[in-house]
Amino acid sequence: MESQETAKRPIEEPGDAVAVQDAEPATKRVKLDDAPAPQAQEEPSQPQTETQPQPQTEGDKPKEQRQDDRDKRRGIAPIKAEYLVVPPSQVAKTAEVVDDDAAEGRTAPDAETGAAGKDGKKKRPKGQNKEREFGIFADAQRLCNSVAWTPEFSPRNCKHGDRCNALHDIRKYLKEGRRPDLKVFGGKCPVWETHGKCSSGWRCLFVESHMKEIEHEDGRKELVLTEDPSKIKPETTPSVPPEEESMDARAGVYNVVAPAVKLALSRKKIQHEKSDQYLKWMAKDSELARIHYHKQKDDDDVAKDYAAMYVEPPLKPSEKRRIYFGRETPVLAPLTTQGNLPFRRLCVELGAEITYSEMALGLPLLQGQKADWTLMRAHESEITPPRYTPTGMVDPLYDNSKDLKFGVQITANAPWIAIKSAETLSRYLPHLRVIDLNCGCPIDMVYKSGAGSALLDAPSKLERMIRGMNTVSGEVPVTAKIRMGIRDDRLTAQKLVERLALGAPDIRAVSGAPGCAAVTLHGRTRQQRYTKAADWSYIAECAALVKSFNKTSNSLQDTIREADERTLPNGGRMYFVGNGDCYSHVDYFNHVDNAGVDSVMVGRGAIIKPWIFEEISAGQYLDKSATERLAYVEKFAKYGMEAWGSDELGLNYTRRFLLEFLSFFHRYVPIGLLEYLPPAMNDRPPAYKGRNELETLLASKNYLDWIKISEMFLGPAPPNFKFQPKHKSNAYENIEAEG
Ligand SMILES: Cc1cc2nc3c(=O)[nH]c(=O)nc-3n(C[C@H](O)[C@H](O)[C@H](O)COP(=O)(O)O)c2cc1C
After folding, report:
1. In CATH, what is the architecture of 319-610?
2. Interface ipTM above 0.95
């Protein structure tokens, strides 16, 4: 049994396997440049300011030495000698490249198996663990929903009557149906502590902290769940009607769609009036455009044809809510698996100003599938306005109080799916900044279906999607996320950006701009995967083009009939966001200032060091201590239970996603261990030990250590719990083989 103290500060207990020994006061912290031999120290993070000793920056060194350093590095993090596990002379000269395609979900070429090679040596397994299994997390005996949240003597009506094979006896369930209460967090339910009630009811693995037995006048004793009204905030009360109260309804979680809507969607009972009308028109217009396109090769006069035969669409976009991207609004990338609600909540707390859901597939949304609708949920911190302290020209019609941080991302392979999805999302989700269309997803399954990055080679389909989505999405603006192209030898983003800003060249004077409010460009191609650095000079070229298109767009509006500025996103201005390899405030401001992008989107950098947003707002590196980093893990665990529940299912769901998070988080190399700055995300460290045991543990590549970390906050993993890391290189067997 763990004590409360152990649970809260698990690593600082003497005798603990990962105990921090000899915690030192801040004044004695390791100096970055000439640190003594490693010894255990824990203290709050230190900003890297002028007054503190700092690792040398590249600019401080003579040119020859910089070149020498770069030659030496070859993707290896420059760890100071005293932290290396082997002497510097034995450190490999090149580092293994971690391919983040595996994490993004792309089907990698068949992974090597780790079998013995020709030389008899066992090869290191690489690549992706496909078809990962996570075990089934459930109570030994199921408790019926009719009693799961009610006082013992007031069950609801059980829909299944006598045929119900779940338990209805709460006392029996608590004794035999589930494991005993957890002792982490001092046995206190983190959800109840924050919100004054717990949505997991009797199934909560901390239920003893929010239940009591009351004695009635007739002497009968009844078990009841307790609430703390002083902590219940009416404004965060779930929006699902009480009769549908279920594990879906969580305090502080927004965009929860009622089960009845999903059911109606699955039964095709929901009408998409706007889309149907628009799609009918679009079919005719596409045919007209097709004829026009084929004729113009041999007919000079044809440009007039389209204009003469053009019929206005039956409906115009509604007035759009204006959005804003600026230097003060760092953007958290959409991240499948990783970018879940608890993780985004953590990032917002640390300074992310704009967030995106994980990518949902359009068709399953239209079919009412629960998994995809669940991705659309936002935390209350995400539905507040982003920071707004503009320095340049301001849009007089932008109203920051109406803006919010959270946007959703979808992908689709056909215009009708994208358009109907946009109409459905804007109708049922009240808290949406934008609907973003993913045009960069490299995953085979998505690409081969004609969605994601396949749209990069289908510009006219893409344009029709954006135009239609913008028409039916009410006040919600539509945006797109693209890559530089599909293949390295054919970069298409520049043409595509032009098309998104202004429309196809030969018809734009008639039909106007498609209405794309912003484009994010990831500076890689699909083919490139993550092996090469993102191409920021290409991103800068596109940023310059977008600026010129924004001017053209303004003059174009003047010539198009009935162009109504209010219905054009941002009055015709398209924002442009750059993305790729941002790993510090230095990268961030460098890109904003020198590449000319409105803002920068941060992906892997945020998972490896979520405080990158804090660094951006503070404008300096922060050398986070291991204790502080562990506190982020603890927060994730709490936020996970708040979002997914503190019952067996929710807890192990939280554990699974915490482990996914740790599969990136362990890659952080504390800057206090580096010979010199800047740190580079793609640098791999040689084997090293941290400044204390906790720092060493947090750097472990072994997923069994990640499970150990999860147990500090989520209690022991159940015997049937399984976790297969996405990268085979993190598998236990492999680590053992390497000794
Ligand atoms: C684990 C993982 C999941 C991702 N999921 C998505 C996604 O759902 N939608 C998307 O547009 N991009 C996705 N991406 C790509 C990122 O949004 C981003 O474009 C890419 O990681 C480059 O940025 P970075 O160098 O800052 O990581 C994913 C990337 C990773 C590593």
Report:
1. Alpha-Beta Barrel (3.20)
2. yes
